[in-house]
Amino acid sequence: MPLTEKGYRTRLVDKEISDTLGVFGALSIEGPKFCGKTWTALNHARSVTYIADPAGGFANRQRAIIDPALVLEGDSPHLVDEWQEVPGIWDAVRFAVDRGRARGRFILTGSAVPPQRSVIHSGVGRIESLRMRSLSLFESGISTGAVSLQALFSGEDLKPSNSVATIETLIEATVRGGWPESQDLPIGGAARIPQNYVTRLVTKDLSELDGIARDPAKVNATLISLARNNSTLVANTTLQKDIDAGNQTITRETVAEYLSALKRLYVLEEIPAWSPHIRSKTMLRRAPKRLFTDPSLAVAALGLTPERLLSDLRTFGFMFESLCLRDIAVYADTFHGLLSHYLDDTGLDADAIIELRDGTWGAIEIKLGSNQVEEAAAKLVRLKRKMIRSEAAPPACLVIVTGLHGFSHRREDGVYVIPIDCLGP
Predict the structure, then answer these.
(1) Domain locations along the chain
(2) Cα separation of 25 and 127, whole Å?
(3) pTM (predicted TM-score)
């Protein structure tokens, strides 16, 4: 039987894990600390080795350093938790899969990307990697999931559904974040978890990542600047100037190095620019959109409270976009949709593009209030017409994800309006 912990909250990624274990010899589940990787992995594992277990003077870690194969013993699937602490485990798993040829033998979980030089083989064909994020609103029970994102791509009829979200509900969900352990806590206690997360990043985690001492004041200033520019196309030079203005002198090279470290810890995510196959002289912007892997981290970095966000809805609008992008990414992962964004030199943009493996695509705009729906719909229709003129495939769907709109429906222009608490996979 799997080692499922009592009280385990089912995750959308569970099905993909089961499917992957039926194809590959090993699976690596990657994502930020505290997002639930270990509990989810235990839901599929029949034996486990905890590399970070302090028992016996960290005996498991010492055994793995001496001979990584020693920590691979156990019933399949065998889970090796926090494998990146001894990177040699990766190659040992790859070798064991090569020799055994059985599927679903190992599950690896990791909260950081080890240095590239410490892993000899990519694991291609043997180890599949799977990204895991924090809980979506559907997984935490805030969204009904009445409207399926995948169904919008297949042209299914939309059944109108009512939203019950209030601005207070959305703010609390953003401050709380999608950390499994915080879902049943009062909001005051729940807010302390991302606050602690940020403190640990500043004082410990970034420096422990690769043994390079990093200035806590500069790390903190970088996190604050990223939070101010959360879910935007901010350049490194802009971040540098923003940090310098806050009385911390930093070079562009240091900014780039900090960003790389945050990505390796799965704290910072980059949404790439979409590259449609079009015949047009329009220049596409290639810069990625940066955002924290969970919106609560941006809130914590800025020291914001529910009360402050309620009094500053412009700032909350950026945080809300980050919340929606996380949920859209989680839902798109369930049907192998790739998340990107669009911006061209005319200023036409889309907050999110979902592209399927067969080239089918849809565009999404994110708006907190219903007063912004008309403008967003006009933009999406303009993007559709531009793609058609450029001889690209037309979109399968155009969607506006809102915070406060009342109900989901399809407009006469074909644009879907979906409150975030109605959206699901």
Answers:
(1) 13-131, 147-424
(2) 6
(3) 0.95
